[in-house]
Q: What sequence folds into this?
């Protein structure tokens, strides 16, 4: 998987955090509206992005519109989002990770 090949579902999910959108409170409704197969694919996609070391500062900025202090923080945000999708954590606050 390359940086440019993220799915529409992932782009919509992460795009909810963009400053000009700020609709992260809509994420639970969005996730409830997608098919089970799309949710499974989204989890796999995030897992692959993390494990294949695709996430970097440019990747995170292009999807969120926010700057992260370093790659570690960007990866931590996407990991927190993955953990949320797995039911292991609350919906992450992007400002815990981004500047």
A:
């Amino acid at each position: 998987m390359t940086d440019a090949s993220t799915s529409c579902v992932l782009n919509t999910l992460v795009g909810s955090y963009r400053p000009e959108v700020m609709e992260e409170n809509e994420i639970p409704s969005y996730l409830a509206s997608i098919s089970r197969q799309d949710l499974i694919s989204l989890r796999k996609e995030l897992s692959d992005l993390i494990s294949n070391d695709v996430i970097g500062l440019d990747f995170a900025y292009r999807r969120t519109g926010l700057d992260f202090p370093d790659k570690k923080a960007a990866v931590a945000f996407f990991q927190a989002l993955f953990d949320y999708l797995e039911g292991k954590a609350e919906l992450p606050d992007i400002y815990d990770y981004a500047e």
